[in-house]
Design brief:
It is a single chain. It is built from eight helices and 19 strands. The chain has two domains: 6-117 and 232-300, FAD/NAD(P)-binding domain (3-Layer(bba) Sandwich), CATH 3.50.50.60; 120-228, FAD/NAD(P)-binding domain, CATH 3.50.50.60. With 302 residues, it is α/β, with parallel strands linked by helices. The longest helix is centred in the C-terminal third of the chain and has 19 residues, at 282-300. 24% of the residues lie in helices and 30% in strands. Strands 1, 2, 3, 4, 5, 6 and 19 form a seven-stranded mixed beta sheet that branches. The structure holds flavin-adenine dinucleotide (FAD). Residues 13-19, 36-43, 45-46, 49-52, 83-84, 112-114, 117, 129-130, 135, 139, 236-237, 273-274, 280-283, 285 line the site of flavin-adenine dinucleotide.
Length: 302
């Protein structure tokens, strides 16, 4: 038997920092909101999240639980702990189908599904991701400071990252992993006592996610405690693309194009959080979500 379709003002795909912030602003405007979330936040590989005022050092799970309880205190919010498997235009709005086969319609759609990271195919790296192989010194650098630290070169941005890290450690090595580094940059890094190790990286030696060394294809072993790298990333749900929203190239993969109010190129669809910004963190995602919620609310006024 077909399930009953429930209608809302706004449906939000992703109930984490950006999606829950959008839901909070919409709930405070007394709008009906359906939030869908399957609990796979981007920071779930780390034991602790840092930098979010009032929640510094909490686990990602605890942060999500606190955010959810703020939002579900409002009677007009329905939180569905399930995936959205399909979204299609439906009259002036959208129709969403969940993994459980339930259908929800909404006049507006906010995409807050975050990004999925793909690491370089290097043995041992996955086990360390979010622990001692990390992307952001502002998130992890304080706890991992003053240790022998490497940067795995992914592209030009890694040259900026390795110099930035001087404020966290003076034992820095750049692993070029087959990328070119211009002579003047090599001189600049040498002047800053940053060692450069050329050649492809074969593996990361680790125990329980603690980096111990980077091993080059030629067999050389460089002992280390910490490795920074940028990951390639792509939207964690396909709906921006399938609904025809414009995308743009970011430094590490595609982002959804939005205007300053987080409106995508498709009328009625907003996108927010990591989906739309190359430099990402929880605070930026929450702020983006608040703005998307406000903009979405204003678009509902007659
Ligand atoms: C390892 C690691 C550690 C990090 N540590 C920090 C830190 O310490 N401090 C910091 O400020 N930032 C940190 N970040 C960055 C931070 O995780 C992101 O900036 C932030 O999570 C982005 O929030 P978001 O709401 O845009 O997306 P996310 O938090 O990734 O949430 C997206 C949500 O959408 C849901 N979702 C996706 N697709 C669907 C679907 N089809 N149906 C239903 N639900 C769906 C997911 O389950 C997920 O819960 C870290 C990132 C990584 C990779």
């Amino acid at each position: 038997m077909a399930q009953k379709t429930i209608s809302h003002d706004v449906a939000i795909i992703g109930g984490s920092f950006s999606g829950l912030s959008a839901a909070l602003y919409l709930a405070r405007a007394r709008r009906t909101v359906a939030v869908f979330d399957h609990g796979r936040t981007r920071n779930r590989f780390s034991a602790h999240g840092h930098g979010f005022l009032g929640m510094d050092g909490l686990s990602p799970d605890e942060m999500r639980i606190r955010g959810r309880s703020d939002v579900t205190a409002y009677p007009t919010v329905d939180l569905h702990e399930t995936s959205v498997d399909a979204v299609e235009p439906d009259g002036d709005g959208f129709r969403l189908t969940t993994g459980a086969g339930a259908a929800v319609t909404a006049r507006r759609l906010i995409l807050a599904c975050g990004m999925r990271d793909t690491l370089p195919p290097i043995d041992g790296l996955d086990a360390c991701w979010g622990k001692t192989a990390v992307h952001c010194p502002y998130c992890h650098g304080y706890e991992l400071a003053d240790r022998p630290t490497g940067v795995l070169m992914i592209g030009e941005a890694s040259l900026h990252q390795v110099q930035l890290l001087q404020d966290w450690t003076d034992r820095l090595t750049l692993f070029t992993n087959g990328h070119e580094v211009a002579d003047d940059m090599r001189s600049e890094l040498a002047r800053k006592a940053i060692e450069i190790v050329d050649g492809p990286v074969a593996s990361v030696e680790q125990t329980d996610g603690a980096v111990e060394a980077v091993v080059l294809a030629g067999g050389r072993r460089v002992p280390l405690d910490v490795l920074y790298l940028g990951s390639q990333s792509a939207p964690a749900c396909p709906f921006a693309e399938t609904l025809g929203c414009a995308l743009e190239d970011g430094p590490f993969g595609s982002l959804v194009s939005v205007d300053e109010m987080f409106q995508t190129s498709v009328s009625g669809i907003y996108a927010t959080g990591d989906l739309v910004r190359p430099m990402f963190n929880t605070v930026f995602a929450a702020a983006d979500g608040a703005m998307a919620g406000v903009a979405c609310h204003r678009s509902l006024l007659q």
